[in-house]
Amino acid sequence: EPIALAQLIHDVCTSFEYTIHKTNVQISLQLDEEIIIFADYDRLEQVIRNLLDNALRFTPAGKKITITLQSQANEVKLSIHDQGSGIPKADLPAITERFYRVDKGRTRKDGGTGLGLAIVSQIIKRHDGTLTIESTEGIGTSVTIFLPTNISEQSYPFG
Ligand code: ATP
Ligand code: MG
Fold this sequence. Notes:
It comes from Alkalihalobacillus alcalophilus ATCC 27647 = CGMCC 1.3604. With 159 residues, the chain is of the alpha+beta class. It has helices at residues 5-15, 17-23, 41-57, 116-126, and strands spanning 2-4, 26-31, 36-38, 64-72, 75-82, 130-136, 140-148. Bound molecules: adenosine-5'-triphosphate (ATP) and magnesium ion (MG).
């Protein structure tokens, strides 16, 4: 189905309004409002929700999360950048594996199960997109997604 990506991002941010307010993290949106892509709405919502959930969880009060959305050639580039704890270099290669978490000692109430990025990665793959995670410990994390704008109707619905 055709999806107005910027609207979807606004809606996900609205659903996190309470957490954003409570954590005192600033969200900066730089979105091309015109972008429409042909994809699975619920899955893309899941992607944005998971990535924003991570950014909010690992970013301390007073810091900023920036979400940018732009189109280039036949692709859409979506990036979520945070000024949070970052991911240690040694953990980066395995970070999209199921149940992988940097702090294995933490319990469910401090975090999640380690499934978020595995799900995100799989959804992006199924949309013929790419996912890159760049991170520096103590500085922050950038998750960048490229999605083709011209996903054909045959390739959906997924799974
Ligand atoms: P779930 O998403 O299932 O609730 P989770 O958030 O722990 O649990 P993932 O989303 O897969 O699982 O993330 C895996 C791990 O990667 C996290 O536990 C955390 O250690 C690290 N991580 C993910 N995103 C960030 C981020 N933006 N900043 C710092 N660390 C991150
Ligand atoms: Mg997560």
